[in-house]
Design goal:
This protein has about 280 residues and is α/β, with parallel strands linked by helices. It is built from twelve helices and eight strands. Bound molecules: NADP nicotinamide-adenine-dinucleotide phosphate. Its EC number is 1.5.1.2.
Amino acid sequence: MELFPIPSETYKLGFIGAGKMAESIASGVVRSGVLPPSRIITSHSNPVRRDAFESFGVTLLPRNEDVIKDSDVVIFSLKPQVVKGVLLQLKPLLTKKKLLVSVAAGVKLKDLEECADQSRFIRVMPNTPSAVGEAASVMSLGGSATEEDADLIAQLFGSIGKIWRADEKFFDAVTGLSGSGPAYIFLAIEALADGGVAAGLPRELALGLASQTVLGAASMAAKTGKHPGQLKDDVASPGGTTIAGIHELEKGCFRGTLMNAVIAASKRSKELSQS
Ligand SMILES: NC(=O)c1ccc[n+]([C@@H]2O[C@H](COP(=O)([O-])OP(=O)(O)OC[C@H]3O[C@@H](n4cnc5c(N)ncnc54)[C@H](OP(=O)(O)O)[C@@H]3O)[C@@H](O)[C@H]2O)c1
């Protein structure tokens, strides 16, 4: 069956599930100018959620059905345990003219496609820094999604951070790394700040320095194109302070512990998506 291209200059974007992730994506899309708010719609009965979207110009419609009818691209931003039931309910409206997207963690394309009875579907795994425009997202394409569909989704999610494309078989590993990774780094920031306090710094200064140090190091790793091992070597002078600190991290199995954390979270993601 021939697929109609999504009209890139005029398409409307709908969200089913007007929660935190939908708000991050919609506000990022509007802020970056990828779409004007007049082309974004959603639905929610809770006035607090409605206000959150209306504050940046998104239109609220009465029902999910109205959102689907009026959208060319629909992002299902629902909790994993809810998404399949909602797809089944809305199935009669989910024609192949529409590009469907799910951000629900752990829900496979096979199941999404089966519930929607169509495979013009893209699964995206974003992470919580989407709230500040720094998401690390990965997408995988369903059976009928086209290259143009992928470009459109890359543009939408590019407005809330960076997005990569990968085979769906990698999604548990993606969950273990970028999905759970922000929590590992929050722990690291807290521990760095505690170290600063232990070494005599006031708490507020220690926390500020710890956060900015992680931000700066991440920015250098992402922007210089240098291998992180090279960046580490560049700042570890012979007999200096940094190599003394690195020695302690190595004694505490810092790298092995982080690797194990990613592997453990990936395994857990696999277990949860099979249950
Ligand atoms: N937040 C993140 O950073 C993040 C990262 C990666 C993946 N995800 C995925 O993104 C999805 C959404 O997460 P979230 O953090 O945005 O959760 P959320 O804030 O709870 O958003 C889900 C929204 O869906 C609404 N909803 C529930 N049932 C509905 C229905 N039948 N029709 C329409 N709306 C309905 C909920 O309303 P009520 O609150 O009134 O029930 C809520 O507003 C999840 O699957 C999660 O795995 C989130």
